[in-house]
Write a structure and sequence with these properties.
Oligomer: single chain
Structural class: mainly alpha
Strand order of the largest sheet: 1-2
Helix content: over 70%
Strand content: under 5%
């Protein structure tokens, strides 16, 4: 008997149905589940969000850092301008001083333009002290001693005043540079502590829930460093500038004292030479 006689009636020429693939079915099911699942909105992250959700202590630390930054930058700008002005005026006075023919000409120059720099301030008080002692003598206890002693005390007092004036504000810069990093670090520790407490109370501590709040808290350390670094650099620059200026002022005071007491200038080797 032929094979065609064994075919079932009504199904002649129809191919058998293919069996379903389990892997393909599982992939399709997963894709459908992902498509129907609503993705939750990501929580906003950043420094502003950290400040907004921080407590009173966190906001207070940020305000402290902000005040430190404003104070340090104010001092940096003001003292930079003052140092440039002092340097220019000091150079102009020294050029006129050593080109003058006498101390009377220097006194007239100071009376005309004023004592607007440390060198002219020192020269003005030294000449006034010499003239005062020559005219009135030791009328007071502070004027006791010889004329050279009185002039020396006056010059030393002026140098101390100029030193205090140059060093004004440096304490603030030093304090900001040394404490701002620790203020920022304390803000970071406080923020991490509260972030971990909130995560622990909410349950399900996963890396995506921890990374955001902890990363926000670390910004406070960066803010502290951003406040401290300019203050430290400015402090070192101002200290060096003051050291150089005070060394020049001390050398000028040495020459001025020698000129006021002897009418001559002492050179670097200790020999006396005339001043024009």
């Amino acid at each position: 008997m032929s094979e065609s006689s064994n075919a079932v009636p009504g199904q002649a020429g129809v191919a058998p149905a293919a069996l379903p693939d389990p892997a393909a079915a599982a992939l399709a099911q997963n894709q459908a589940a992902v498509a129907t699942t609503q993705v939750p909105d990501a929580q906003p992250q950043g420094f502003s969000h950290f400040i907004a959700q921080s407590d009173l202590i966190g906001k207070s630390l940020f305000v402290v850092l902000l005040v430190m930054s404003l104070a340090s930058w104010y001092l940096i700008v003001v003292k930079s301008i003052a140092n440039m002005r002092t340097k220019r005026r000091s150079k102009q006075f020294l050029d006129k001083f050593w080109q003058s023919t006498s101390l009377d000409a220097v006194a007239n120059e100071i009376n005309t333009h004023g004592a607007n720099d440390p060198f002219s301030h020192l020269a003005s008080h030294a000449m006034h002290a010499r003239d005062h002692h020559a005219k009135f003598g030791a009328a007071k206890l502070e004027e006791a001693g010889s004329q050279s002693d009185f002039v020396m005390r006056t010059m030393r007092k002026v140098i101390d005043e100029e030193t205090a004036k140059l060093e004004s504000g440096l304490t603030v810069l030093a304090s900001v540079g040394s404490t701002a990093p620790f203020v920022g670090l304390f803000g970071t520790v406080w923020g991490v502590y509260h972030a971990l407490v909130a995560i622990g109370m909410g349950g399900g501590a996963t890396i995506d829930r921890i990374a955001g709040p902890v990363g926000e808290a670390l910004i406070m350390t960066g803010v502290g460093l951003a406040v401290a670094i300019p203050a430290v650099l400015a402090f070192n620059a101002f200290v060096r500038r003051n050291r150089v200026l005070l060394a020049q002022l001390d050398a000028f005071a040495h020459d001025l004292f020698a000129f006021l007491t002897t009418g001559q200038q002492i050179d670097n080797e200790g020999r006396v030479r005339a001043i024009r």
